[in-house]
Specification:
The chain contains 28 helices and no strands. It is mainly alpha-helical. It has a domain of about 375 residues. Helix 25 packs antiparallel against helix 26.
């Protein structure tokens, strides 16, 4: 499908150019390989995700028949499951795979540029810009954004297949377009733009716009529409802006990515919307002027196909992410520009290569100056990307960087508090939760987590107030009931604890902590059969949690089933459960540790 010219001299030159691009890109992103997981989605999708703990039929079925809170991305989750199966939770492997997938994207882009008519050096310049651009750090250095590099690979394979179809009209290539399009959607719903970009390629090929051309794109909507609706329902929310504010926000979003692509300084994981959203704010006036200018330039120079291609590719692949709503805390993000920047990169490669060609033909000495400027540009971008990758080193580094640019971000304070909490620095965590609540007093989660930190510090009365407030603000939040129940359990108030856990599991039937906590309560009440049933269900959901085996072993021991108790205790011990030694000594008294 991807057919590089295998004429010896030309092929060697193309291979050398691509190899150079890949090496430079690898070193620009190499600092990401020293990073770990962060608590921004990495815990949800990888670290604490029971779906990736096994590659058996049931787990794979669950991956492809359920959604993460971020949407329907089963292929991305499946890739995490493969890594976990062979390497466990080794962050180096996850980061390395993200980088390798990014390099695969570059190779596909390089040969795609050649197929569209770019000279090898022009395609190389374009792909190098794409490869080391700081806006793409988020898509590569953030483990959870595996979905960007993965969907891009299948998206580009679909574009290659479409170009082959336009050249040969073979039905096999048409079938491949649909297959790759479906796989791209399963990696990330942002692939829904594919039919529009296929139309852009039709235009690039000089194909006339006919009814048959439209009909060719219809089969894509048979998988795009239902898969898009799954994610839309997860993220759908009431519009919280007026028509005027929504329009200004949409215009600002549309030009923000272009501004940031041409001047990526600074690059921030979380951008703030300019306030107030009004024509009196010069930022929005500048956005209107910029949008008019961009459209005008594209129309005026539409005969220059790379300019028009860049504009069409950008707009058609990203416009559905331009927000009208003011409620989103992440209204713009660098990762949304990953694939939509392709057109601008190709435009850059074409313009620079043509300019160098003219200077070389005239033997103009200014070609040296241009080459120096290119070296400085690529050097600056590479250095920026290298250091930007370090932002994703760990959770605290990430949230400190966000707060440096967004000092009033409740989202950043909340997640930094969670990072402190995971390190048992409860005083700092509580301070950040206090700030989060001050900035967003009507949000339930900060109260819930502050309650947890207070409970850890033995301040049960204050913790209880926080859990009550959590449930008051969000009566459908299962974790709030479970946490309050665990506090009741520690206070030996078992009946209210049991009521809360029943409610939590009613709201969230596959909630592991709900089952494990209810098992503890039932065991304390002497209802050992029911406690065992809950532990069995929790282990069925996620068999990788050592503590479940340990506590189930206690139940077996209380039921005088010492053989089963020994088996579970051995299992917990093999999994490294830290509190097992004293219990194993207890089991030895029954001569069960042989």
């Amino acid at each position: 499908m991807i057919r590089p010219n295998k004429n010896s001299a030309i092929f060697k030159k193309e291979t050398a150019i691509l190899f150079f691009v890949l090496v430079i890109t690898f070193f620009a992103f190499s600092s990401s390989l020293l990073s770990g997981f962060t608590n921004w989605d990495d815990e949800l999708l990888v670290v604490d995700n029971p779906e990736i703990r096994s590659l058996d039929f049931n787990h794979i079925k669950t991956i492809f028949t359920s959604t993460a809170s971020l949407g329907y991305i089963p292929l991305s989750i499946f890739s995490f499951a493969i890594e976990y199966h062979f390497f466990g939770l080794n962050p180096f492997v996850f980061h390395l795979d993200n980088l390798i997938l990014h390099l695969v994207v570059l190779a596909l882009l390089f040969f795609f540029g050649l197929r569209l008519g770019l000279h090898a050096w022009a395609s190389g310049l374009a792909v190098l810009l794409f490869g080391i651009h700081p806006m793409h750090v988020e898509s590569v250095a953030w483990i959870s954004e595996r979905k960007d590099v993965l969907y891009a690979i299948f998206y580009l394979l679909a574009l290659h297949s479409h170009w082959s179809y336009l050249e040969t009209r073979k039905k096999s290539f048409y079938a491949l377009i649909i297959l790759y399009g479906l796989l791209s959607m399963l990696a990330k719903p942002m692939a829904l733009s594919l039919p529009l970009i296929l139309g852009v390629l039709d235009w690039m090929k000089g194909r006339k716009f006919t009814l048959n051309v439209v009909w060719e794109k219809i089969p894509h909507f048979l998988y795009i529409i239902p898969l898009t609706l799954i994610t839309y329902r997860i993220h759908a929310q009431p519009v919280q802006s007026s028509l005027g504010e929504g329009l200004l926000t949409w215009i600002w979003c549309s030009v923000f990515y272009i501004w940031k692509f041409f001047f990526p300084f600074p690059v921030v994981p979380l951008y703030s919307r300019p306030e107030p959203v009004s024509l009196l704010n010069p930022v929005y006036l500048m956005a209107i002027v910029s949008l008019i200018a961009f459209v005008g330039i594209a129309i005026r120079f539409r005969a220059y196909r790379w300019l028009f291609f860049a504009w069409l590719f950008y707009f058609f692949s990203i416009f559905f992410l331009f927000h009208f709503d003011l409620s989103e805390h992440k209204i713009v993000s660098d990762r949304y520009m990953y694939l939509p920047s392709v057109g601008f990169c190709f435009l850059f490669g074409s313009v620079v290569h043509d300019a160098l060609g003219r200077l070389k033909k005239r033997k103009d000495r200014r070609i040296v100056l241009v080459m120096v400027c290119l070296a400085v540009l690529f050097g600056a971008l590479s250095v920026k990307t290298f250091f930007q990758c370090r932002v994703w080193k760990d959770s605290l580094t990430l949230w400190f960087e966000m707060l440096r640019y967004n000092p009033k971000s409740a989202f950043a304070f909340y997640n930094r508090a969670k990072a402190y909490e995971s390190e048992k620095r409860f005083d700092l965590a509580e301070a950040d939760y206090d700030t989060t609540i001050a900035l967003s007093p009507k949000v339930a989660l900060p109260y819930n987590n502050r309650g947890i930190t207070r409970a850890y510090q033995g301040r049960e009365d204050e913790a209880m107030k926080d859990f009550n407030k959590t449930i008051e603000l969000d009566p459908e939040y299962a974790e709030g009931y479970s946490n309050r129940a665990y506090l009741y359990y520690n206070l030996e108030q078992y009946e209210p604890a049991l009521a809360d856990l029943n409610k939590a599991l009613e709201l969230k039937p596959d909630y592991i902590k709900g089952y494990s906590n209810r098992a503890l309560v039932r065991a304390a009440l002497g209802r050992l059969d029911l406690a065992l049933k809950d532990f069995n269900r929790a282990i069925e959901i996620d068999p990788s949690i050592a503590g479940l085996y340990y506590h189930r072993s206690l139940v077996y021991a209380d039921m005088k089933n010492f053989e089963a108790a020994r088996t579970d205790a051995k299992k917990a011990q093999a999994m490294g459960y830290s509190d097992i030694d004293r219990y194993m000594e207890r089991l030895r008294q029954y001569d069960l540790s042989k």
